[in-house]
Amino acid sequence: NAGVTQTPKFQVLKTGQSMTLQCAQDMNHEYMSWYRQDPGMGLRLIHYSVGAGITDQGEVPNGYNVSRSTTEDFPLRLLSAAPSQTSVYFCASSRIAGASGDTQYFGPGTRLTVL
Amino acid sequence: AQSVAQPEDQVNVAEGNPLTVKCTYSVSGNPYLFWYVQYPNRGLQFLLKYITGDNLVKGSYGFEAEFNKSQTSFHLKKPSALVSDSALYFCATGDYGQNFVFGPGTRLSVLP
Lengths: 115, 112
Hints:
In chain A, strand 4 (31-37) and strand 5 form a beta hairpin. In chain A, the strands form two sheets. In chain A, strands 2, 4, 5, 6, 9, 10 and 11 form a seven-stranded mixed β-sheet that branches. Helix content of chain A is 0%, strand content 49%. With 115 residues, chain A is an all-beta fold. Chain A has strands spanning 4-7, 10-13, 19-25, 31-37, 43-51, 54-57, 64-66, 76-78, 87-94, 105-106, 110-114. Chain B is mainly beta. Chain B contains no helices and twelve strands. In chain B, a hairpin with a 4-residue loop joins strand 8 and strand 9. Chain A binds chain B through residues 4, 31, 33, 35, 40-45, 48, 58, 90, 92, 94, 97-109, and chain B through 9, 30, 32, 34, 36, 42-46, 49, 51, 90, 92, 94, 97-105.
């Protein structure tokens, strides 16, 4: 198992550009999520999905879109990049959607810089 | 709303000494508590979790955590620190099912 994979590892954008961060998992997990990590703030939830075709907003969803057409993939789209979106982005997954206490497994992250 | 606090930004400990990284929580209902570790330029790795049962939870790499309901704490401990334990440690709790709420992180430095 590759686990949770993310591409790209690094990305530099100009303000106003759009891009998609890719996330895939090969563990047949129901639940997937996106977080952003900023210094001194821990990780904050952007969007999450409890299964194919079902997504919902987390704590900081503005400026981001997601979709989940398959169990394996959960891409994160930045519609019009802003410097405030400079961050490290992590994708995570867990086996059973709605199971409190289920362990989440994280990808290696994407470091995004918006100029 | 669920929340966790990590009162120390930085913890320094000498190699071979015991280490403690502190976490306190505020949750409604049964707490589901986790510890993750992040090494430089890496993703988060799961260390251990408390769901129910024994207050002392054992996890990966010799780490353990003590759940204390009366003090609403879930401190991470290791009897003998290694230089390789130097990393960023996050406490987290499950929120409304399984969305995680993370603390701000504590940077652990183990000095040789």
